[in-house]
Design a protein that fits this description.
It contains 10 helices and 5 strands, in the order E-H-E-H-H-H-E-H-H-H-E-H-H-E-H. The protein has 212 residues and is of the alpha/beta class. A 5-stranded parallel beta sheet has the order 2-3-1-4-5. Helix 1 crosses helix 10 and helix 2 packs antiparallel against helix 3. The longest helix is centred in the last third of the chain and has 18 residues. It starts with 5 loop residues before the first strand and ends in an 8-residue tail after the last helix. The relative contact order is 0.21.
């Protein structure tokens, strides 16, 4: 049984990732895991630049954004203070809200997908998640949730873009299905049903899910 693993949550905006990250974190803690939750873009200086672009405070070309994500992700992995490698070495199970597949989908909707995959190949080769959990919802439901929960929309949050992003997710998943462990769950259901599906899948990959 593996003591600690690396889990990445993926999905278009409004897919319910934050809810599922919390539910899985609670479930893992109940059975004795130390859990470290993180996210991308990070809260590092590079991540802050990305967030300022998303919030329309800074203007940047899509190729620049793709490059910033490459740098942010490498720092996310390798940072000596709170990087993913550091946390795994300390015995934490690490859950990240977004990782490589988010770049493939979101940047791949604006620049060639193969370029994005290649640009992120260093981080992918350094560390692939034990499981990528893709929460699959329709872009229409996504937009409905975003409009209900936000006072303003970010750069990528348009129905046309979310449809493109969803298509790129599916394209990247198909392209990399032999390299990555990818679990797709239907995000149009209740959070409890989705969480139960995810928990079952976590136990399948050899993680101790019994209390001790």
């Amino acid at each position: 049984m593996k003591k600690n693993i690396f889990i990445a949550f993926e999905g278009i905006d409004g897919s319910g990732k934050s809810t599922q990250v919390k539910l899985l974190t609670d479930n893992l803690k109940k059975v004795g895991h130390k859990v470290y939750v993180t996210f991308e873009p990070t809260d590092s200086p590079i991540g802050s630049v990305i967030r300022n672009i998303f919030n329309h405070r800074i203007e940047a070309d899509h190729r620049t954004i793709a490059g910033l994500f490459v740098a942010d992700r490498l720092d996310h992995l390798l940072n000596k203070t709170n990087g993913i490698f550091k946390k795994l070495e300390e015995g934490y199970t690490v859950i990240t809200d977004r990782y490589n597949f988010s770049s493939y989908a979101y940047q791949g909707a604006h620049v060639p997908l193969d370029w994005v995959i290649e640009a992120n190949s260093l981080s992918a080769d350094l560390l692939r998640p034990d499981i990528n959990i893709f929460i699959d919802i329709s872009p229409d439901i996504s937009m409905e949730r975003l409009h209900n929960g936000r006072s303003s929309m970010e750069l990528y949050e348009t129905i046309e873009n979310l449809r493109n992003v969803k298509n790129k997710y599916m394209e990247a998943i198909e392209k990399l299905k032999f390299k990555e462990n990818i679990f797709i769950t239907d995000g149009n259901r209740s959070p409890d049903l989705i969480a139960a599906d995810i928990w079952k899948e976590i136990s399948v990959i050899g993680v101790s899910t019994n209390a001790h």
